[in-house]
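Entry for the shared binder. Reason: the reviewer on the internal report wants the predicted structure included alongside the sequence.
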Amino acid sequence: MSSASVERASNSNSRLAAAGLTATTILWLTAGLSMLQPLATDVYLSTLPGIATYFSASVASVQSTLWTFIAAFGVWQLVAGPLSDRLGRYPVVITGAFAYCAASVLAMLASSLEVLIVARVLQAVGACTCLVGVRGLVRDLYSPVEGARMLANAATLMSLAPLIAPLIGAALYVRYGWRSSFALLSAVSLVLACVAVSRLKETNVRRNPHAMQWAPMLRTYAEIARAPAFRAYTLAAAATYACLFTFLSGSSFVLTNVLGESPTVFALTFATMVSGYLIGTLICRKLLKLYGIQRTVCVGATLQATAGVTMVALALAGVHAPLAIAAPIFFIGMSHGLIQPPTQSGAVAAFPHAAGAAAALLGFTMMVVATGIGIWIGASYNATVYPLTLTMCACGLASAAIAFTLVRKDGGIAAHD
């Protein structure tokens, strides 16, 4: 290990000790609180066709419960980020976790699709607040490369939940109906909120008293957006998430309604993607140590583009079967695990005094792109596999283009402490 690496590790250990935290505590809380956002989508995906039937709603209407969640998640980050810079990570994370729990209860009891959509928006606010808070917390405690490794470690743990969540959601749906998925989310979020209350400590020792004032806030966002490295990593993160969100938005209808498979088959296909993601995060940690952030992103983007092209080639060749989606989606999941941790860390690396705002603008951009994807997938649904597969391919190619141009050119990062 180089002397610089030893010094950065020593600095991180000092910060952890000063905050009264351990690396293990940070790892598990980061994984658990970050998990709330994917769980909000993954657990109930297999129930979307059932929700459509229950409320006598169209595919596009029911998919609005997904893209409105993403839209609210994206917009609220612009508030949650400065809020965590102003008030600290602890109160923001705790409030977000309990808000998520309350929203999940409301969704479970929803008497109409409109109430369900409102509950999903409130659920997004809670999940977003938690995620922005823990991203800022990681930046408070770690250097960029160490932060990327911590996020990769947390992503590995986090992926265990969505790996089994669709299977649990499908089983609950078959036995108890679609409301049971939200009952599960209520219970999980309540446990996480209680653990965070007892174990989490404040890490933001440089709070910005002007963070919530409009003029300074807009200046901060403008400064962040002008940074070439931020733009490079944010666009890379948005492209890979768009590819993944295409699958989240359309796969349940394609596998269930188009290919005639059961909710369990959909859940297994989804688990294939998450398995790839888990493996990708494990490989990511090794690649970051060997090659650094920029080259790791390029490796992941190459894999994503290749998998997307393969998926389209199979569809155009007339291979319309679950395996023709499951096999490429495994590698798309793997590529996502390679790209997301380094892009999240790289985007906020240059802003130690505004880590919450940088994380918020990153997330906002990702969710704006995902919202557009969700609306497109709902509008383009035509009872074939083509809108899904062609869109995933396009996103994969965009990911590769961004990685080999912007990330390679502007993604150099100093080891900021």
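Summary line for the report: The two ends are 18 Å apart (CA to CA).
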